[in-house]
Design brief:
The protein has 45 residues and is an all-alpha fold. It has one domain (2-44). It has helices at residues 2-8, 16-27, 32-44. Required for the transposition of the insertion element. One of its GO terms (biological process) is DNA transposition. Keywords: DNA recombination, DNA-binding, Transposition. InterPro entries: Transposase_mutator.
């Protein structure tokens, strides 16, 4: 939660909702492999 809030400080306010949703999928992943896959997807967008 705190990591997501901190990360959103660097995001334009118009894009925060979409970025927050993507970050939640990364931080809420059940396994390391799922988190890495979500991170790669986030980085490619």
């Amino acid at each position: 939660m705190h990591q997501i809030r901190h990360s959103l400080k660097f995001v334009h306010w118009k894009e925060r909702k979409a970025v927050a949703a993507d970050l939640r999928t990364i931080y809420a992943a059940a396994t390391l492999n799922e988190a890495e896959a979500a991170l790669k997807q986030f980085a490619s967008n």
